[in-house]
Amino acid sequence: MNERVSRSGRWLHSGNRIVVLDDGVSSGGADLGELRLVGLQAPPPPLLRRGSRGAAVASLQRLLNTWVARSRGSVAPLKEDGVFGPLTEGRVIAFQRASGLLVDGIAGGKTLGALKAAVQPTCPTLPVPESPCLQEGPLIPPSRLPLCYCVKGYATAQREVGDTQQAMVEFIVLEILRARNFSKGPVIVTIIGHTDYVGSSESNVELGRARAQGARDAIRDFMTKRGFPLPAIRTDTCGEDQPIAPNTTAEGRAANRRVEVCLSAGVLL
Question: Which of 17, 160, 235, 260 has the highest local Cβ count within 10 Å?
Fold first, then answer.
């Protein structure tokens, strides 16, 4: 940690943080967490241009590769080597032109901010950190929420629940009833539809939504016919934005065509 004195007062520099100190605060031997902070500000991001090198350039290249993949570009991905060469500059220019930014081939604050926003996942977050389609079921069913389940086996353009999915839907209904017995609050059902990357991204958003709504309708129909009280259900879609397997193989695309269902406790917003 290095102390500096300027006309505006004393400040400490540690890593990428600048800490402005009160006149009465001594920095000798102090930890950042022990200092009484008057202001805390992060330095602006560096200007990345032809000739720049380092981790920031590698991060930029990773973002550019993600942007190309999201926009379904057919160009080869950049090598994420941390060297800002002509290919990286050309990709920055292409992004700036597509985003209506100043086209100068330099990745400054505005370009980096727009690039991060462009590759930010738009799909909702489940109450668990990973897809239930990647989890192996426990031998002993847990008695604590959230509980999450995978409905799979969808054909390429399939929207509604079919014979392949019906058994899992009925199992989820039984799990809803079981969760009501041990949950202190109401059970909320969140259903999110997913697709492979066949078709346009816009059509896949709608297909994912249709799959989630189809699962919702199947759950409601099964519970209504048997006189069970219906839970609060929220549906959403990730479209093609959250694959759990490579879309380059038939097996991977089949795995990505799925619906994820989570049971949680709380209030439906």
Answer: 260
